[in-house]
Protein: Type 4 prepilin-like protein leader peptide-processing enzyme
Amino acid sequence: MELFLLTLLGLVLGSFISAITYRIPRGLGFIKGRSFCDNCKKSLSWFDNIPLFSFLWYRGNSRCCNQKISIRYPLIEIASVLGIIFLYPNFVLILLFLLTFSILIIDIEHQIIPDELSWLVLFFSLLSPISYPLFSSLFAGFFSSLLLLTLYLITRGKGMGLGDVKLSIALGMWLGVEKSMTWLMTAFIIGGIVAGVLLLLKRANLKTKIAFGPFLIIAFWIVLLI
Ligand SMILES: [Zn+2]
Structure:
């Protein structure tokens, strides 16, 4: 029963995330307005909007114009279900997961990190009972972002975006000083491995831009949980 309810919750929140990560970078407003087909812009009925089931029912095609629906929707919904089941019953971490997962999706798809989401993570870390003694936490956020800011300045914005710098204030505050060091090192190692694999597979060259935010977020969760 518990697993069933968590799955439902995950599907609903996952479909919310897939909607806001589509809307925020396109400046479409947070929740306002009914959802519409990405392709023909017709508005969708409730039946087209049931997480996962609509996708499976129509075999991945839209009812309005019979076009392929992006795989992002079911993937985001399934990942949300798994994340929530894994982190339950820690609702603080579940909320942090939903926030950082949204940032990760937007950064992969648009190579930007919306400020409002980074500030939400920051605000949330100030309220969280998990966060470290405030001074140590602030210092970790300051130090992590200073390190990334230095890289940003040295590479003239090519190796790092200002969005990464701002996000690192919030994530550093969550981890505290010691773990922050491990976290940033892990992010660079994962980023290096992924970039190396992409180069080897010729899916990228030395000029390809790869968002760094997703590596920061994945490394953050590895260090926080392990
Ligand atoms: Zn359509």
Residues 115-226 form one domain.
